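Archive transcription. Copying these from loose printouts into the bound notebook so they stop getting lost. Printout 1 of 2:
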Amino acid sequence: MRNELILTAAFLVLSAGAVAAAPVGVTVQGYPAGVIAEAEVELPLEAHHSLFLRAGYNFTDRKDYGEHDNEEGGGPGVTVGYRYTLHDSGDGWFFGGRADVWFLAIDWKDRGRSGSTDVVVFQPTAEAGYRARLKNGWAISPFLALGAEINVRTSGEDVGQGAIFLAGLTLTKSF
């Protein structure tokens, strides 16, 4: 877990230094089994196109959606994504894709037994949303995303994976 935290911190520091003038903000996403909170930096490329980088924490309470009667835990992660906006200003409707990697520690329980699993999750998703400019350089972007949670490395018993649907909101500030 220590290495994952160092990786996440390095990702944030390097990203922020490389894009000092880019919009920065926060993203919160909910899904049926949890909540994700992330810091975000956006990298505008050219009209219609941008990349974004995020780092944050995934809080999960899978209840009995996983392999066990109850699965809960969380961990840090990073995101790299691409967006295409219909308007060349970067405002309005957007579509894109992203890839998240999460380093989760999951505590699970079944009748009469319990345990812990460390898992690295790859989460590719497609997303669509709308960006609205507010005053003083602020923007708000609600979005929906659909993808998959894929357990790529597991230490312990198998835990839940599969399709994922997320609803999120990003608030950014341009300087």
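Printout 2 of 2:
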Amino acid sequence: MNNKANTKPVVSTDSSATEADSRKSFYQTFSDCPVPPAEMLNNLGLFMRRQDLSRIMFMDELYKKALPVHGVIMEFGVRWGQNLALFSSFRGMYEPYNYNRKIIGFDTFEGFPSVSEKDGNNDVIKKGAYSVTEGYEHYLDSVLQYHESESPLSHIKKYELVKGDATATLERYLADNPQTIIAMAYFDFDIYEPTKICLELIKDHLTKGSVIGFDELNYHKFPGETLALKEVFGLDKYTIRRSPLSPLTSYIVIE
């Protein structure tokens, strides 16, 4: 797969013009990297920005919160799949023989299926935003297969990618798998309707200690996520926790 040119980057950022220009220059530095391909994977820390490392550390923190809880991990809004790969690695690090800890990602892989008035008027909020290259889910599947091969019990598949509008695919998944207990769910849909519907669908599959993470709560550019949480769980029943590692990401723990 090499159709990057056909995919326009979609980035909502609070960076200054100076920071944006500096990053453009650094992207070229990355492209020009003289490190041999065989050694590149071992040296990706060369290019990892403080913000990106902080996000990885937050995901690690979140995973550890869910460690003592039995059940699967779900991500709603996968896009390029970095979080799924991280969760797979964390499982291999912290609970390598827990083959019951399945990791399931839901995404259209075609961007937002629709938007509503409750999503505000940010320029990036439009149908089809945050799409990926055509057929990317197959490439991501091969990446996740590789990560699984680096951990014990690799003959047991412990991840699943569910393509389509999650408002429909999650309902089908839970109907087909009524035994599902959700130890952790991470929401990165950005928008109101799928977040609300999926929060409603997972409620009966949560247990005490289950962790629900959010990517954009209390963020004026993406109001829909907060409105969905407010309508489904309320804002006064659980402490909305944050980490000093990230200004936007947050989570609640079912108590």
